[in-house]
Amino acid sequence: MSLQQILAPQLQQSLHLLQVPTLELRSLVQEELQQNPLLEEIPKDEPTVEIESPDGETVREAEPEKEAVTAEERAEFKEEFEVLAKLDDEWREYFSQTNTVRSRSPEQEEQRQHFFDSIVQQESLQQHLLQQLNFAALTEERRKVAELIVGSINDDGYLLTPIEELSVSSGIPLEHLQEALELVQTFHPVGVGARNLKECLLVQLDRLGKSESIEAVLVNQHLDDLGRKRFPEIARAMSLSVEQVQQLANFISTLEPKPGRMFTTEQQQYVAADVVVQKVGDDYVVLLNDEQIPHLRISNTYKELMASGDKSNEAKDYIRDKIRAGKFLIKSIHQRQQTIYNIAKVIVERQREFLEKGISCLKPLTMAQVAEVVGVHETTVSRAVANKYMQTPQGLFEMKYFFTPGFETAGGGAMSNTSVKEQISKLIEREDPMKPLSDQEIVAILKEQGIPIARRTVAKYRNELNILPSNLRKTY
């Protein structure tokens, strides 16, 4: 025996609703509407009134119906309930019959297959290569060898598995694999099938007719120095000027280091603002985006049916459970929206200067500070802002964006580390490419602006911004 803390199912549901974004919440509510016959969505054109709940929260409800339900309608409701009470078992029985397949005519089956074949999907790199392989005049045996090479190429277009290893594992002679690799390297995209970056660039130069050019010599002999921008060392080794090496490097930079990148499928993520901040006069107003969330209520039909006494205990229990589940869902949604609203108000009050002037004026803010003001636990704030977005006059931001540690300036003020990163980024954008700023020089400039910061912190922020060190940013 052991003592464990277990969250009740209703509490788990409430925490889940608090954490999910608006679009996902809409899907969950729609799913609950289908499962719970006692829940119904309030039409948008139906007039609503604001009432105060027992715990002091303001809740929107539909206006009460003006006409009473007649005895004839009540009888229809009873008949409807008897159908709904059996709905769960009937659907379970229906879906359990997975082995029952409706017979289709050959024409219907052909139309169905044509529909699935017509779904547009982005072509993968392997599909693109296999399509080119079909036009090559190969024997069946050589085609299978080439298909093995194609199947071993990764998404970037590289063959990272040594062909010696492929030969041992497949039992195919090494010379046959080498011939197939040379064939695949002639396919589009140019550079596909290369085993490393050097070979990839050399294949592209060869396709451009530059296999014996000075660019090919530079790639073949000085690729490491080229990546580190050691142009003076390369110039001395190749008896060239630094300016000539810079020009060669500029041309090589136009080549594609990842040939398979054009076939990479990246899923687009669509987001909807959970909170909208608008300026009204001199104040900023916080508005919740409720348009995407269905407004729910318990059907009056089943409320009256529950009040009548002419039904079994099983029916009463069914209605009571569904009403309880529906009320808890409605309360959880209202509580979710109220929590997000309270947190957003604190963010807006704290980040007013950001709303006025932009990222450079973002102030440091922690979830613990917001939790103390709102009166909730810090983990509740973390769940509430997860995957939530705020539309501000400065643009659309994830709510987590506003929670950052900060620095104390020389004047006694506070500055967010995001603002410091913005300052570093602007300094590097305005620097002289011939004389890029070192990390120590950036430290000195920020210190003059009243921002005390260590050099290692500047290096850390520069890496987070994906900015190269000064020696790699220098141009000649």
**Helix count, DSSP H or I runs of 4 or more residues:** 22
Outline type: flat
Largest sheet: 4 strands, mixed
Q: Could you tell me the number of beta strands?
A: 10
Strand arrangement in the largest pleated sheet: 5-4-7-8
Task: Please mark out the parts with pLDDT under 50 across 5 or more consecutive residues, or reply none.
Answer: 49-69, 97-102
Look at the helices and sheets and give the structural class.
alpha+beta
Mean of residue pLDDT? 81
Domain count: the total is: 3
Distance between the termini: 73 Å
The helix content, as a percent range, equals 40-55%
CA radius of gyration is: 33 Å
**Estimated share of beta-strand residues:** 5-15%
Describe the structure.
- This protein is an alpha+beta fold.
- It has 3 domains: 8-66 and 267-305 and 322-404, no CATH class; 125-263, no CATH class; 406-473, Homeodomain-like (Arc Repressor Mutant, subunit A).
- Helix content is 53%, strand content 9%.
- The protein contains 22 helices and 10 strands.
- It has helices at 9-19, 22-35, 71-85, 87-96, 106-117, 125-133, 140-151, 163-170, 174-184, 197-207, 214-227, 231-238, 242-252, 300-307, 313-350, 352-357, 367-374, 378-385, 417-429, 439-448, 455-464, 470-473; strands at 39-41, 48-52, 58-62, 275-280, 283-288, 296-298, 389-392, 395-398, 406-408, 414-416.
- A 4-stranded mixed sheet has the order 5-4-7-8, with helices on one face. Strands 1-6 form a two-stranded antiparallel ribbon.
- A hairpin with a 2-residue loop joins strand 7 and strand 8.
- Helix 1 packs parallel to helix 15 (313-350), helix 11 runs antiparallel to helix 12 and helix 17 packs across helix 18 (378-385).
- The longest helix is centred in the last third of the chain and has 38 residues, at 313-350.
- Residues 49-69 and 97-102 have low confidence and may be disordered.
